[in-house]
Design a protein that fits this description.
It holds the Pfam family OAD_gamma. By secondary structure, the protein is mainly α. The protein has two helices and no strands.
């Protein structure tokens, strides 16, 4: 093939890809904006419903059972090394 034909094919392929990506991203942005507007309407009605939150107590440190398991594993490893 001659170089001109290859360049023309490459340019048309590049243009087709860029147009395809532009159209896809335009549709994606439109869909996100539409969903945002739709959910904005429902947000006001959902805020009147009280929401319960579970009270989690913060844990301090590592549980004793984990410490015991880690200590046993370290002791077993050291015994095998000797």
């Amino acid at each position: 093939m001659d170089i001109g034909g290859l360049l023309t094919t490459a340019a048309s392929l590049m243009l087709t890809g860029m147009v395809g990506v532009f159209i896809f991203l335009s549709i994606l942005i439109s869909a996100v904006l539409l969903m945002s507007k739709l959910l904005g309407r429902f947000e006001n009605s959902a805020s009147s419903v009280p929401v319960r939150t579970a009270k989690l107590q913060p844990q301090q440190g590592v549980p004793p059972t984990h410490i015991a398991a880690i200590s046993a594993a370290i002791a077993q490893f050291r015994n095998k090394q000797q």
